[in-house]
Predict the structure.
Amino acid sequence: MTGLAAAKQMVRIVRAATLHDRLVYAHYGVTHRCDLRCRMCGIWKHGNRKEELNLDQVARVADVLQELGVVQLSIGGGEPFCRDDLDRIVHLFTSRDIQTRVLTNAMNLTESRMERVVDAGLQAVSISLDSLSRKRVAWICGDERGWDKVVTNMVRFARLLSGRGGILVMNTVVSRENLSELPDLVRFADYLGYFISFLPVELAEDAQDASNRFIAYQPRMALSARDAAEVDRAYDQLIMLKAGGAPILSTTPFLVESRAYLKSGTLPNRCDAGTLYLSISPSGQMSLCHRGVGIKSMLDPDIVDHLRSSAFQRMARREVAACSGCIRPCWMDTSKVFRTTTGFFEMVRTAVKARTRRSVPDLEGALAWGRP
């Protein structure tokens, strides 16, 4: 990316933080297929290779996001590496100066596949890991060797992305299963040279609940009122660690909101879907967020004008006001960055810290952190 392109992106970010009137971020789920069956997730049930866009169509999506001025894109799923052409998808966005991050479970990757996406211009990666316990990770994801496989590939990504200035992130879903581990997971992420992001678990209310296809029914992971004191202890430590400089990507306002949600179950519904960010499905349908229905195809010739129209913005505000809310960090924490002074300056400090070169972690040392 040229210095001029980076300067233009910074201007757009500052304007978005000031006026809240510009798209800056998008999430593109390139597939709903997945190679795992994690207990709290239901998206894999909707995987359909036939609905996914081909590369020419993905190029059109990239052109649209570039014209709209989107600064950052997260490529997720499902598991995005289920697409054999992921490296070419990444290149379609990075070649248009869109900061691109891949969200992956990193469970079944070969080093050559990882090298290909990095060579395509990838700067940032977010990898799921919910525990230091091998047994617990195996229970959650259904792979007895899951912990060692993920950590091995976290070390590989750290080596491949060293010096590129991007952010390495460990995504951790907070549930009853790992509440007591959270501070140690921060220290482990720091050892690896990763930031850590905490995602409060969202679960279906019962086995028949289909209101959110991203989530599943798993009562063992649910928190209740009797867990409130432990939630407070864990999040007090996280907020203290972040204030002390620990590499926690989640903003302090989001950590505070997450604690309230985990204790009460009450979801916040103040977000900027459709204004600061939007979601794109594997078929190219644009929606305000992952839970929303498709509004319009990203391939439609008038999509840019539509998204810039006052009619679309009025509709987005109505939909957000009527939403029951969620705790998805891609949405809620992004709003904390752009709507709170604390969140914005924490984001700036994170970006600066990410450019500080770190020594590449030792694989043997990383694996030694694993617990039974």
The longest helix spans residues 3-19. Strands lie at 25-29, 72-76, 99-104, 124-128, 168-174, 195-200, 277-280, 285-287, 296-297. The longest strand covers residues 168-174.
